[in-house]
C-alpha cells in the first residue's frame, strides 16, 4: 500500500519543538495536570491501577461521553488514542476500495489520505470562501453518486475556523438521508465557538451520522491522547474490532483524567478558558490584519484555534513558511499543505505575547521582501 505524505503533520513533526515561536498549532495552550485537577484528584491519579482496562474505553468514560448527546449510551461510543485514531478506525471499518467518499476541503487531510491509500475514490467539494468557508449544497448534490458511501466534513473547520449554520447542517443531513449514506463529522474543535452558542452535534441530527471528537483541541488537553467516535452501535462495534489491531486500548491515567474533564461543569470550565484565550488572541490578530491590510486578509474564524489568512505576495507558501522559520524563528503552516497556495494558517491558541511577537516578525519579513 502506498500512502501520500501527510505534509500538514510532517512539517509540524519536524520543526514544532525546535522553533522559537511556534504558531503552527491549531488548539489552545494546553493545561498542566496541576492546573486541571484539584489536589484531591491529583492524589487520586497516584492510585490509578495501570491495567489495560476496557479496550473500547472505561464504561464510565464512554457513558460520560454519551451523556454529551441526548440519545446515546455507552454502546454508541468508542474511546481512542486521540481523534487521529478515531478517524483511522472510521476509514478502516467503514470504507472499502471502490467506494466513493465526499470530502469537504480545505480539511485536515487525514481521512482524505487514508481513504486514497486503501483505494477509495475521494471526491472533493469546496468550502467556498465567499460563503464564509461553507459549502454550496448544490455542489454536494452534484458530487454524490450511487457509489458514495459517506461524506465527511470538519465542523468547526480546520483550517478556516468556519462553523456551519444550522440550515446547512440540516441540508447536509437531508442529502445524506436521501441517499442513505453515512455522514461523518470531525467535531474536535466544537465547543470553542467565539461568538455564538455551541451548535448541535451531527450525531444528534441523523441516525447514520458518526462523529469524531476528543480532548485535543477545544478542550486543550492534547497530551492525554484521548479521542472518540460516536455513532450507531453496529458501526462503533466494527471500529472496536479494528482497534484490536491498532493500539488495543488507551492509557489508564489518561482515561481517569478524561472522565473528570468531560463532566458537564468541568467541560464548561475548560471551554470557557479556551474561549477567553481565543477571543483575546483573535482581537489581537484582527488589529494586526487591519494594520497590515495591504498584505493580509481573512475571513475571521468562528471557532477553534487557528485562522486561515491570504497574503498578497507572489512567494509560494511553502517557501514563505520555511524562510520565516529559518530566518525569523517563527513557524506557521503553508496553504500548500491544504492544496491552497498563497494562504497561511496561523495558530491563535498560544499565549498572547507569543502570538504578538510572531505576527510582528511575519509582517516585518514580508515588508522587507517586498522592498
Ligand atoms: C480536525 C482534526 N482532527 C483530528 C486531529 C488529530 O488530533 P488528536 O489526535 O490530537 O485528537 C486534528 C489535529 O490537528 C485535527 O485538526
From TrEMBL:
Key word Transferase present in the record? Answer: yes
Task: Say which domain of life the source belongs to.
Answer: Bacteria
Q: Where is the signal peptide?
A: none
Enzyme class per UniProt: transferase
Q: Required co-factor?
A: pyridoxal 5'-phosphate
By its UniProt entry, which CDD domains does this protein fall under? AAT_like (cd00609)
Keywords of the record, alphabetical order, are: Aminotransferase, Transferase
Which parts of the sequence belong to the Aminotransferase class I/classII large domain? 50-362
Q: EC annotation?
A: 2.6.1.-
Q: Which InterPro entries match?
A: Aminotransferase_I/II_large, NHTrfase_class1_PyrdxlP-BS, PyrdxlP-dep_Trfase, PyrdxlP-dep_Trfase_major, PyrdxlP-dep_Trfase_small
GO MF term (any one)? transaminase activity
Q: What is this protein called?
A: Aminotransferase
Q: Please tell me the species this chain comes from.
A: Microvirga tunisiensis
Amino acid at each position: 500500500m502506498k500512502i501520500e505524505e501527510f505534509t500538514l503533520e510532517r512539517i509540524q513533526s519536524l520543526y514544532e519543538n525546535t522553533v522559537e515561536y511556534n504558531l503552527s498549532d491549531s488548539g489552545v495552550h494546553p493545561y498542566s495536570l496541576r492546573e486541571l485537577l484539584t489536589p484531591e484528584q491529583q492524589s487520586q491519579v497516584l492510585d490509578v491501577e495501570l491495567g489495560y482496562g476496557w479496550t473500547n474505553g472505561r464504561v464510565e468514560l464512554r457513558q460520560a461521553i454519551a451523556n454529551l448527546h441526548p440519545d446515546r449510551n455507552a454502546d454508541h461510543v468508542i474511546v481512542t488514542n486521540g481523534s487521529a485514531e478515531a478517524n483511522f478506525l472510521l476509514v478502516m471499518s467503514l470504507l472499502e476500495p471502490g467506494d466513493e467518499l465526499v470530502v469537504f476541503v480545505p480539511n485536515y487531510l487525514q481521512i482524505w489520505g487514508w481513504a486514497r491509500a486503501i483505494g477509495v475514490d475521494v471526491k472533493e467539494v469546496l468550502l467556498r470562501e465567499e460563503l464564509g468557508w461553507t459549502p454550496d449544497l448544490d455542489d454536494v448534490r452534484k458530487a454524490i453518486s450511487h457509489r458514495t458511501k459517506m461524506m465527511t466534513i470538519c465542523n468547526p473547520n480546520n483550517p478556516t475556523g468556519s462553523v456551519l449554520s444550522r440550515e446547512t447542517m440540516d441540508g447536509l443531513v437531508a442529502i445524506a438521508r436521501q441517499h442513505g449514506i453515512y455522514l461523518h463529522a470531525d467535531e474536535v474543535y466544537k465547543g470553542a465557538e467565539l461568538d455564538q452558542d455551541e451548535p448541535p452535534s451531527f450525531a444528534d441530527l441523523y441516525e447514520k451520522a458518526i462523529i469524531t471528537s476528543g480532548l485535543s483541541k477545544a478542550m486543550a488537553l492534547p497530551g492525554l491522547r484521548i479521542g472518540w467516535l460516536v455513532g450507531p452501535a453496529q458501526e462503533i462495534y466494527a471500529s472496536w474490532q479494528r482497534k484490536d489491531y491498532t493500539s488495543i486500548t488507551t492509557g489508564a491515567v489518561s482515561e481517569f483524567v478524561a472522565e473528570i474533564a468531560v463532566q458537564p461543569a468541568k467541560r464548561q470550565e475548560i471551554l470557557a478558558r479556551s474561549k477567553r484565550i481565543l477571543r483575546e488572541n483573535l482581537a489581537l490578530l484582527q488589529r494586526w490584519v487591519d494594520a497590515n491590510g495591504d498584505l493580509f486578509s481573512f475571513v475571521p474564524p468562528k471557532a477553534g484555534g487557528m485562522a486561515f489568512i491570504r497574503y498578497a505576495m507572489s512567494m509560494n507558501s511553502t517557501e514563505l513558511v520555511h524562510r520565516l522559520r529559518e530566518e525569523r524563528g517563527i513557524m506557521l503552516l503553508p496553504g500548500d499543505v491544504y492544496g491552497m497556495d498563497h494562504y497561511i494558517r496561523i495558530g491563535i491558541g498560544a499565549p498572547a505575547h507569543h502570538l504578538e511577537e510572531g505576527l510582528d516578525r511575519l509582517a516585518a519579513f514580508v515588508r522587507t521582501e517586498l522592498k
